[in-house]
Amino acid sequence: MKLNDKYVVKSIDNEQCKEWLIHKHYLKRMTSISYAFGLYAKEGNILNGVCTFGNAVPMQMKKSICGEKNMELVYELNRLCTNDGLDKNANSFFVSRCCNMLPSPMIIVSYADKSFGHIGYIYQALNFYFTGESHTQLDWKVRGKEHIHLRTLLDEFAFTEDRLEKLKQKYGDDLYQVQREPKYRYVLFIGNNKQKKDFLKEKLFEIKKYPKGENKRYDASYNPSVQGILF
User: Fold this and answer.
1) Does this model's pTM top 0.85?
2) pLDDT tens figures, 86-114
3) Phi and psi at residue 4, to the nearest 5°
4) 100-130: buried (b, 16+ CB within 10 Å) or exposed (e) per residue?
5) Domains of the chain
């Protein structure tokens, strides 16, 4: 059976993403969401994955893709989370359908997190441009909680001033800094042929050869309580 006959992709609201992102995705936290989509199995109407896009992208990074002229068109594919055991190529089918449903023109940036063993083979299959590695920086970690992202730690003090100082006060010597491992960065242009050609002419990045390596999966066995939606 063809993937198109077995699955359908639908727009969903942020609330439907919440449980998936907080409990099932490896980062275990919400993110800025401008567009969200769900992957549904037609048989049984079961939600099998979520994919989200947001525009909370650093200004300098937006400018670095195709210049200041196009910076407002830059969005990040910031979460992709699916159930285990899906059909072969289901994830690339899902992302492809999501990108086709986005407004046009648009520039999509996505990262493959090397620290979690991700190479970005889904993006390679969909002909994203590989632009190299992201800039690295120092990151804060808590001993015994190294798997928790800094933003998640700071969320303990949401809507308060001097959140980092409060974090230091709480964890003391257990709070330390490490060099963050760079991520692989991929870019996709969405639009008609002319718009894509214009983006290529105006790009400020070098197109590089795809990286290769062993791709590792994280534990996505959590079973969300809300699985279906009425069409």
Assistant:
1) no
2) 999 999 999 999 999 999 999 999 999 88
3) -65, -25
4) eebeebbbbbbbbbbeeebbbbbbbebebbb
5) 1-133+183-231 (3.40.630.30), 137-180 (no CATH)
